[in-house]
Write a structure and sequence with these properties.
The protein is an alpha+beta fold. It has a single domain (5-136), classed as Nucleoside Triphosphate Pyrophosphohydrolase, CATH 3.90.79.10. The protein has helices at 46-58, 123-136, and strands spanning 5-14, 17-23, 33-34, 37-39, 61-67, 72-73, 79-89, 102-108. It is globular and about 40 Å long. InterPro entries: MutT-like (IPR047127), Nudix_hydrolase (IPR020476), NUDIX_hydrolase-like_dom_sf (IPR015797), NUDIX_hydrolase_CS (IPR020084), NUDIX_hydrolase_dom (IPR000086). It comes from Streptomyces solicavernae. Belongs to the Nudix hydrolase family. Pfam families: NUDIX.
């Protein structure tokens, strides 16, 4: 048994581009970019949590493709991040809008991944997502 809280993130892809979401809150994270997702609730599998979180935050249905290697500690003690590659199901990337926790979205081509100011804990996950995507090309 662990006291760790698991946070799940989605490396969400559409048309070869990765979705970056800009935080609107809390104040110390606002304006920085992350992979969308959130906390796993008690009794919930991480994969279920990610599908739920992406539905709540973006109003989208996704298909999870692969868990990316790694788990990263977050700035908040006792929290750790795991990331899955995912793709949109039955939605066009231009129709995706932030519903909560974010105020802007950007779909980044592989050569644009570092054009946004990622939160520190998301940077290794973005690196893994780029490796995963490159291996699929």
């Amino acid at each position: 048994m662990t006291d760790r809280t698991l946070v799940v993130g989605g490396a969400l892809y559409a048309e070869g581009r990765l979705l970056a979401a800009r935080r609107s809150a809390p104040a110390h994270l606002a304006g920085r970019w992350e992979l969308p997702g959130g906390k796993v609730e008690p009794g919930e599998r991480p994969e279920q949590a990610l599908v739920r979180e992406l539905r709540e935050e973006l109003g989208v249905e996704v298909e999870l493709l692969a868990r990316l290697p790694g788990e990263w500690p977050l700035a908040r003690p006792g929290y750790a991040l795991r990331v899955w590659a995912a793709q949109l199901v039955a939605a066009h990337p231009d129709d995706v809008r932030p519903l909560e926790d974010h105020d802007a979205l950007r779909w980044l081509a592989p050569d644009q991944l570092w054009d946004v100011d990622w939160l520190e804990h998301d940077r290794p996950a973005v690196t893994e997502a780029a490796r995963w995507q490159a291996a699929r090309r």
